[in-house]
Inverse folding.
């Protein structure tokens, strides 16, 4: 696995991406699924946020948030609208940098490196920490080109390598069997659920270690939602996943740990099974049982 | 959660309370019958036991409906689970009440059979435990529930003592073996009532605190229990 510490040395990481032995080209393992009772204490920290504060101009939206995300696990961020969970998610690959007037304090370690350091190459960071959005955003190109786009931009020109990479990513995103005969068709012709899985495949193509998902299934029908959830269960054996969801049952189904945000503060974080059976905080209990929010 | 959910939960609470009071009366009457030697009681109690069976099924169906339709979590989930378990415990207490009354009826045919004095103490303690466990459920009082659990040892001691006494009677007076066997069963049934009260109290602790206090020697850390079971 390419250490994120290499972010400051982009050329080394870019070269690693096209290496056949790289993680992207591995045959996907059998479906592992999310074992929520799995003991994650032996997993190294993929993300370690320490006393993070975030401001939109003068408006503070995150207060002293400290949260650890173990490697190869799924962490669900839940909370009512405006609680700061999406803002927190976007800090993890510095997407908030794109919004003018924002400011972040504290420490945010991604695989040991403080990514808030100004010397960090954010483009490379976002390659390591990929993102899937609520609304699927395929490029108006072919299915093949959607997945090959990132590696191409990163300098990969070998058609055979790209073809192998596209197939591998589409397989990992559980889309290959549905599109293998029409890779040159427009991605815009795919269904909503297929488009979202294509976006996941596109994210995988840049060989990330961490995948952020902002309500990835909220616009999908139940069958497509189930496929995305199954996919999360498969991907978490290789990737660290952080997912924001308003769907409490989805959080309970797909995640190892759940973090509850309220009014910009992290109220409680713990193993998902415990949070949904015996939360320690009254506020968490009131939220997940529908007393408010 | 919707207003529908809260209405369903209120109805479930009302129903389990009705079942509690029905079963408490049933076991009280069975033990009174034992003390007074009322042979005719068992058929009446059998009829009331069927009412309890109806409550048991109804409450289970209500719980399943709530789980299927509303997917409760946290304290709501624990409450539904515990109500379902308590209904099961109460149903068994009602069965024991009928069995006690049947054994009482059989014993009463031996008019001069000596009833051990401490049986009354044991029955009273078991009844109080049942009453207190139900109160702890109503009041959501985990401390009171824990006190109930602690009292089970006393009933166990009385049980051991009484069983030894009955065995002595059987050894010394073989002609009384038959009524002594019935009494033996009564003692075991009363001891089981206390066990069910303890189970209810343990469920109440889980409902209130989310902690499973059964089998305290098993590992409790996250994943530890599963690791233990896998080993």
């Amino acid at each position: 696995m390419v250490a994120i510490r290499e972010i400051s040395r982009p050329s080394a990481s870019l070269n690693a991406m096209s290496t056949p032995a790289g993680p992207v080209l591995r045959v996907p393992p059998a479906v592992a699924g999310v074992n929520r009772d799995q003991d994650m204490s032996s997993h190294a920290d993929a993300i370690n946020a320490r006393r993070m504060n975030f401001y939109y101009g003068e408006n503070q939206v995150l207060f002293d948030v400290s949260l650890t995300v173990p490697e190869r696990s799924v962490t669900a961020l839940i909370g009512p609208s405006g609680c700061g969970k999406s803002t927190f998610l976007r800090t993890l690959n510095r997407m908030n940098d794109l919004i003018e007037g924002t400011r972040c304090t504290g420490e945010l370690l991604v695989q040991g490196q403080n990514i808030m350091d100004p010397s960090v190459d954010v483009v490379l960071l976002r390659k390591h920490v990929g993102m899937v959005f609520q609304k699927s955003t395929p490029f108006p190109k072919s299915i093949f080109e959607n997945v090959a786009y990132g590696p191409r931009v990163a300098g990969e020109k070998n058609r055979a390598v790209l073809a192998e990479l596209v197939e591998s990513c589409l397989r990992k995103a559980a889309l290959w069997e549905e599109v293998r005969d029409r890779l040159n068709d427009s991605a815009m012709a795919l269904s909503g659920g297929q488009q979202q899985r294509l976006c996941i495949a596109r994210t995988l193509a840049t060989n990330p270690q961490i995948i952020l998902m902002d309500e990835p299934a909220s616009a999908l029908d139940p069958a497509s939602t189930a496929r995305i959830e199954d996919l999360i269960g498969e991907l978490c054996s290789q990737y660290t996943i952080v997912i924001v969801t308003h769907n409490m049952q989805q959080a309970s189904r797909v995640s190892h740990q759940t973090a509850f945000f309220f009014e910009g503060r992290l109220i409680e974080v713990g193993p998902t099974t415990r949070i949904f059976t015996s939360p320690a905080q009254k506020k968490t209990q009131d939220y997940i049982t529908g007393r408010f929010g | 959660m919707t207003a529908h959910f809260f209405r369903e939960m209120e109805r479930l609470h009302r129903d389990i309370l009705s079942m509690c009071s029905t079963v408490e009366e049933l076991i009280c009457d069975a033990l009174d019958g034992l003390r007074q030697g009322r042979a005719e009681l068992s058929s009446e109690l059998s009829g009331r036991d069927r009412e309890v069976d109806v409550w048991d099924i109804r409450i289970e169906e209500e719980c399943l409906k709530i789980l299927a339709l509303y997917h409760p979590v946290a304290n709501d989930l624990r409450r539904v689970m515990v109500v379902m378990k308590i209904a099961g415990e109460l149903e068994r207490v009602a069965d024991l009440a009928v069995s006690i009354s049947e054994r009482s009826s059989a014993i009463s045919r031996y008019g001069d059979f000596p009833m051990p004095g401490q049986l009354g103490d044991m029955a009273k303690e078991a009844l109080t435990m049942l009453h207190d466990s139900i109160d702890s459920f109503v009041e959501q009082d985990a401390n009171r529930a824990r006190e109930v659990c602690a009292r089970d040892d006393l009933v166990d001691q009385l049980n051991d003592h009484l069983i030894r006494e009955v065995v002595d009677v059987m050894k010394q007076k073989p002609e009384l073996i038959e009524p002594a066997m019935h009494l033996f069963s009564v003692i075991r049934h009363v001891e089981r009532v206390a066990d069910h009260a303890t189970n209810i109290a343990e469920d109440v602790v889980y409902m209130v605190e989310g902690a499973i206090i059964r089998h305290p020697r098993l590992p409790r850390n996250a994943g530890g229990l599963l690791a233990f079971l896998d080993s």
User: Anything to note?
Assistant: The first helix of chain A runs from residue 10 to 17. The domain at 45-140+210-288 of chain A is CATH 3.40.50.300 (Rossmann fold). Residues 90 and 96 of chain A are 6 Å apart (CA to CA).
